[in-house]
Amino acid sequence: MNSWCRQALRSLPLLGAVLLCNPSWSAQSDDTALTIYSSQQPGAISPDFYRPVPGGASPPAAAVPGYAVVRQDRDVTLGSGRSTLRFTDVAALIDPTTVTFSVPTQPSVRVLEQNFQFDLVSSSKLLLRYLDRPVTVERDVGGQLSSVSGTLLSAADGLVLRSADGGIHSLQNFSAVRFPELPGGLITQPTLLWDLNSGVAGTHRARVTYQTGGVTWWADYNALFTEGRDGASGTLDLSAWVSIINQSGASFADARLKLIAGDVNRAQPPQARTREVVMMAARDGQGGFEQKAFDEFHLYTLGRRTSIPNNSTKQLELFDRASRIPATRKLVYQGLSPPSFGVPYTEREPGFAANTRVDTYLEFRNASAAGLGMPLPAGRVRVSRLDSADSSVEFIGEDVIGHTPKDELVSLCLGSAFDVVGERRQIEFTLNTQARWAEEEIEVRVRNHRAQPAVVIIKEPLYRWTGWTVQSSSHQFVRDSAQLIHFDVTVPRDGETVVRYRVRYSW
């Protein structure tokens, strides 16, 4: 034992000293690679993930929806013939069925048995192991520290000790318990244990790979919108980051980082399928992410090493900031969002309340001419706008985007317009059950209380049945899908626009 550990044993409680002095592999010889897969819904991370976990423990594996494949290369010393090798510093949320051990330079090394030991030391386990054994209990009595030594009889409801003179002590409040030693069977770190057979003795480079839960990643975008001349257009500055949460129970120092994009199927658990994520390389060439096709997926490798401590969140730049992307603002009013019906809906009233909110959208094209033109990974986009009065940046809304290929349109819903409202009502309804048709006349009013005209897209779901014909309409409409049409209308300043149409359903 070196002098540092001797000093630790004198100055620290027993458990802390064991944690510090437990033998492990030399960190200088480690070469760690980490490949992270994510099943996280973009923008769905709870703030609880960023807060300390009581007692420093890791949450259950299901808490962080993602996983990683860890590969560690270490120098190990093997004896000739049969020997035992212990491998510590592995993730607490490891899947032991995925562990592989190999010595690439010595293929003759065989694994006879493989064990994962996870009976980690804790206060409750120590107390149970020390039943009918001597311990020393420290407690605060009137501001003075006193100690009681004896045989531990019970730890179920407080502590019960029998002293050397036969006296029984029942202790409900105590500050510490001192144990003579760490009992056998308890370990301070999750440990992999191999029973090996090697034909060659000496130091070799071994490779260990395994999967662990408790690791996830997702994309975050920050956008700054600058309004143009007419208020319905402007430009956008867009930056992107990848966020990584590690609650696996292990830290990965100076690791080579990769992120897998693709819908990678896993047999267990059934719900743990990854969400496809794609990224682009940073254009500055300073160790950013580089993309390449890999099997049916995409593999993204960080061009530099990075450290990911346990119970931490790390953010890395996804790509260079794109500036002055042409963007447009749109107002959309949809009075009804009905469910799907498997049969014709013949009730006079729709059965759900009409909406009065007019939503505001920000749209831009993911095109090379706009400074983008590369696949955008699914993620949350936060949009801000500059207040010219004091040059401050104010948050104006956020939305989640799906995976967006190049040249596709990105549409972000930022909230509801304050000064533009809508109203939808039924004017007339006729039903002929024998002839199997129904007619309905709808009126939609949009009022604009702004100081300038507003262009509003009115979306109307024709939800009663898939067979329909618009009999008459006050404005031109566009058919978006089998049961959705929309009208583009201009509402004057401090004015109102009324749209009426009559539709016949037949079945």
Could you tell me the strand content as a percent range? Answer: over 45%
Q: How many DSSP-defined strands?
A: 28
Which segments are poorly predicted (pLDDT under 50) over 5 or more consecutive residues? 1-28, 58-62, 268-285
- Overall mean confidence score, pLDDT: 82
Largest sheet: 13 strands, mixed
Report the helical percentage: under 10%
Entry summary:
This protein is mainly beta. The protein has helices at 3-11, 14-21, 123-129, and strands at 31-38, 66-78, 81-87, 94-102, 110-117, 134-141, 144-154, 159-162, 168-171, 176-178, 191-198, 202-213, 215-227, 233-246, 252-261, 289-294, 297-308, 312-334, 357-365, 379-387, 392-401, 409-432, 437-448, 454-461, 468-473, 478-481, 484-491, 495-506.
Q: Which features does this protein show?
A:
mainly beta; Immunoglobulin-like; SH3 type barrels; 3 domains; 7-stranded mixed beta sheet; 3 helices; 28 strands; 5% helix; 54% strand; disordered N terminus
Describe the protein in words.
Strands 13, 14, 18, 19, 20, 21, 22, 23, 24, 25, 26, 27 and 28 form a 13-stranded mixed beta sheet that branches. The protein has three helices and 28 strands. Residues 1-28, 58-62 and 268-285 have low confidence and may be disordered. The protein has 507 residues and is mainly beta. The protein has helices at 3-11, 14-21, 123-129; strands spanning 31-38, 66-78, 81-87, 94-102, 110-117, 134-141, 144-154, 159-162, 168-171, 176-178, 191-198, 202-213, 215-227, 233-246, 252-261, 289-294, 297-308, 312-334, 357-365, 379-387, 392-401, 409-432, 437-448, 454-461, 468-473, 478-481, 484-491, 495-506.
